[in-house]
Amino acid sequence: MPSSSSDAHPQAHLIQRLQQQGIATQVSVRQRQLHIGLDVAQYPKPQQVVARIYTLLEQLNLEACGLESVEKVFVYGLSAPRQADWTKSFAMPQPGFSQDDTDLSSFNNRISNAIIFPILMALALAMNAMPIIKFLLRGISIWFHEFGHAIVAWLSGRKAIPLPLGWTPVEPERSPLVYCCVLALLGLLFWAGRKEDKRWPMVLAVALAILQFSMTWLMSADTFDMWLYFGGIGGEFLLCTLLMVGFYFPLPDYFRWDLYRYPVVLGAAFTFWGSFWSWRQIDRGVESIPWGSMWGGPEHTGGDMNQLSLSHGWSNAQIISTYNRIGFWCVLLLLGVYGYFLLKQNRTVFFGWWQRAIAQSSGRS
Question: What's the confidence (pLDDT) of residue 2?
């Protein structure tokens, strides 16, 4: 790493500020990375000096120092040129709010991802807690329920039309046309993800294509029938969770939903939390399993739960435990994704708190 102490060096101000604090350094900037080399004999342990460097970078005018494009900082304890005894790295501290933080359509909006998402979850819970609102918005839950049936049918190569009236007509025979149309959509998703260098749409497309092949050509008619009846309430959990998790993932331009994700996620959250609470109540014995169908009443034997019980041998305990387990796993996934992006997009804030705490503790000692 070349030494950089000349005033002509674009980072001369940074070097000067470091030297004012008694930190003799070598500095270079390469490929959006700031590299700072220290004499390991002077700094055998990195914690305190890295905290001081982080605090200094927070206070600098990055543009004036030629560091506005730097995304990551590497600090080395050098025992010889190009030989590091220890290495520490952190994201470059960014002062104030970025342009993304003021753009609701941006998936890098830290305010949206950290605050608006849980607000949508809380609003969905509040909507479920008000009987009149829950009744008026029941159609949203019904449609997610019917789409759950339809997605099972489509992935199994069957024609299906999800109707918001609480009914999804499904043709029992496989249709090569349905299989090819769904596969073409997945191929378009893969192609768009590859074109825009987005990996997760490509992974999703491949995973769904494998699932589609298995469900269409390898799954028996009896197993398809079971999954079809399972898919209604399964859709209220799994489909809604997929949409809520998708809040953090930008789709390719062909499928963009930058601003649409807010109402979609709210509707999905409303359905998910309503179903989750209902099955928790069923597990406690406060409510009963939803036997029957929407149009035939509790006595109608053609309902989803009736068919799982009568045609596929599911016991009441199996039905209750299955949907409750799915609900809990979905909640854990939501918390995990939220926590991951909270830490990822605010790591400079959390790292700054930690480094300042180290600096303060070392100052007191």
Answer: 40
